UniProtKB/TrEMBL annotation:
Chain positions recorded as ATP binding sites: G234, G235, F236, G237, T238, G239, K240, T241
Source organism of the structure: Amphibacillus indicireducens
Protein's name in the database: V-type ATP synthase alpha chain
Domain ATPase F1/V1/A1 complex alpha/beta subunit N-terminal: 7-69
Function: Produces ATP from ADP in the presence of a proton gradient across the membrane. The V-type alpha chain is a catalytic subunit.
């Protein structure tokens, strides 16, 4: 390894070199005698600046810096899934084995196990013309996921050597390609890709398919597409992490990339334990078999936290390129932004709003823009959906991270402190949240759920909005003076809130609910609403209707009707009709 510079100054994770150096922008470097991993973040004739991804205490000016000639990259290959990495893709388990739980000194570890042999099935033949992105081999990476090894995006040529099907490590050559300029490249299961550069695709498609999460307030009211973006802003304890866990567990993505960014370490341990035990509803295997965790918790170096979201999205794009639907959870992007602020402060950059650097917005954009439904280089279709938690101080959504995130995401699932206090979970505010994907998804809901779905959804939202304005009056003068049709609106809104929007993550049936059940629950609620409206228009008082237990029975459908017994829901429609007939017959 060639020394290319000497440390001049150190400020926390930032290291300076004086004078002109041979490094390139974004080059990965080894810093100091300990050879800590760093990245060149600025470069001119007077000075070179390095961001160091490990703890720099003990390092001194005069120590050497070594170049690698490569951009800051991640290693892509089998072994990513069912694994837990730090922000620069070092496996935490291996690090722990070497230096214990706290990373206090430099550790040299490979991202992927270089000794493990994988059962490889080669899918190209000798003499075949191949282009970037083309699949060359398949490996059963975990019980759930078949890994597809691809020609790196920038390589074209002819296959001049292939191995037999068999067991290979990630560093053994699988095929040799002769390129047009006659240079020969060996392709292995493991390849590198720079984290800050999106992996190339053929084209971006508009997505018209939802990412189904099993969470009613999301799927029915504020749906996200496969390839879509969403933010979950909320104050401390309002349920951001819980919501990310629920989506990670139950959404119909093929692969989950879970980035724990600057939050408490034990939360990541929980995810790991939970996911190892929990069954994937689709495959019956452990959820970890389709999951990769990236943990850069609050006790770990701040620069690696900055890198962690790019590491995560690059891994996601890699599985997307294989044709999978990938969903990223980032918890929390606010802690990431704080890392950015701290680094910017050390660089003595001019601060903008609340001390964040002026490039906060563009950095957030480059992250969320990597989401999308794509036609890959190999013509398969895959998607990356990004769901980021935002944790503003004091739950104040006017601060810069929330506001800038809002510009780049198309779903906003705003968590409400008061709802959380009332233990209405998920505490997604139905008044302040939105999804800009509803129009894109209408046809899909019509064809795959029910022709009435979108219309019913709109009615539910209307009732909730009407309730909200009525409550202003009720607070002033009480509900007794309201006319009966408005009393009904308030009662049905209560049924919607308790019976539909509230969803208990700890209840075996309620934790994950199919779209079909969601749609039928809405149908029952709206049928009750329509029949009651009719009775009220015929002069029946609301007090009389409330004597019947039907309202409370509809509220508990979520617990009383098992997820595999949707036929029972028809009984509720009949019971509502009987209730109607009974009232009309005895009070006409
Ligand atoms: P945050 O990440 O916003 O600080 P958490 O996700 O840790 O908040 O949630 C705090 C607590 O709220 C959880 O420990 C849990 O008790 C409760 N909670 C949140 N969402 C739900 C839910 N859907 N069902 C039941 N309890 C919930
Ligand atoms: Mg949290």
């Amino acid at each position: 390894m060639k020394q290319q510079g000497t440390i001049y100054g150190i400020n926390g994770p930032i290291v300076y070199l004086k004078g002109k150096t041979q490094f390139q922008m974004s080059e990965m470097v080894y810093v100091g005698k300990m050879r800590l991993i760093g990245e060149i973040i600025s470069l001119n004739n007077e000075m070179t600046t390095i961001q160091v991804y490990e703890e720099t205490s003990g390092m001194k000016p005069g120590e050497p810096v070594y170049g690698t000639g490569q951009q800051m990259s991640v290693t892509l290959g089998p072994g990513i899934l069912n694994n837990i990495f730090d922000g620069i893709e070092r496996p935490l388990k291996t690090i722990e084995d070497q230096v214990g739980q706290y990373i206090t000194k430099s550790v040299q570890v490979e991202s992927l196990d270089t000794e493990r042999k994988w059962p490889v099935h080669v899918t190209v033949e000798l003499g075949q013309e191949v282009t970037g992105g083309m699949i060359i081999a398949e490996v059963q990476e975990t019980k759930t996921i078949v890994h597809k090894s691809m020609i790196p995006p920038n390589i074209d040529g002819k296959v001049i050597e292939v191995v037999e099907d068999g067991d290979y490590t990630v560093v053994e050559p699988i095929v040799k390609i002769q390129q047009l300029d006659d240079t020969i490249v060996e392709i292995r299961l493991a390849q590198k890709w720079p984290i800050r550069i999106p992996r190339p695709v053929r084209r971006r498609h508009e997505s018209s398919v939802p990412l189904i999460t099993g969470q009613r307030v999301v799927d029915t009211l504020f749906p996200i597409t496969k390839g879509g973006t969403a933010a979950i802003p909320g104050g401390f304890g309002t349920g951001k992490t819980m919501m990310q866990h629920q989506v990670a567990k139950y959404s119909d993505a093929d692969i989950i990339v879970y980035i724990g960014c600057g939050e408490r370490g034990n939360e990541m341990t929980e995810v790991l334990e939970d996911f190892s035990e929990l069954e994937d509803p689709k495959s019956g295997n452990s959820l970890m078999e389709r999951t990769v965790l990236i943990a850069n918790t609050s006790n770990m170096p701040v620069a690696a936290r900055e890198a962690s979201i790019y590491t995560g999205v690059t891994l996601a794009e890699y599985y997307r390129d294989m044709g999978y639907d990938v969903a990223i959870m980032a918890d929390s992007t606010s802690r990431w932004a704080e890392a950015l602020r701290e680094l910017s402060g050390r660089l003595e950059e001019m601060p903008a709003e609340e001390g964040f650097p002026a490039y906060l917005a563009s950095r957030l954009a480059t992250f969320y823009e990597r989401a999308g439904l794509m036609q890959n280089l190999n013509e398969s279709e895959g998607s990356v959906s990004i769901i980021g938690a935002v944790s503003p101080q004091g739950g104040d959504f006017s601060e810069p991270v929330t506001q800038n995130t809002k510009r780049f995401v198309r779903c906003f699932w705003g968590l409400d402190r008061q709802l959380a206090n009332e233990r209405h979970y998920p505490a997604v505010s139905w008044l302040n949240s939105y999804s800009l994907y509803v129009d894109d998804l209408s046809a899909w809901f019509r064809d795959n759920v029910s022709p009435d779905f979108i219309n019913n959804r709109r009615q539910i939202l209307e009732i909730l909005h009407q309730e909200s304005s009525l409550m202003d009056i009720v607070k002033l003068i009480g509900s007794d003076v309201l006319p009966d049709d408005q009393k009904l609106t308030i009662e049905i809104a209560r049924v919607i809130r308790l019976g539909f929007l509230q969803q208990d993550a700890f209840h075996q049936e309620d934790t994950n609910v199919s779209l079909e059940k969601q749609a039928k629950m809405i149908e029952v609620i709206l049928h009750l609403y329509r029949q009651c409206r009719e009775m009220i228009s015929m002069g029946m008082p609301m007090s009389l209707l409330l004597e019947n237990q039907i309202f409370n029975r509809v509220v508990t459908i979520k617990y009383d009707v098992p997820n595999d017994r949707l036929d029972l829901l028809d009984q509720y429609l009949d019971d509502i009709d009987q209730f109607y007939n009974h009232i009309m017959a005895t009070n006409a």
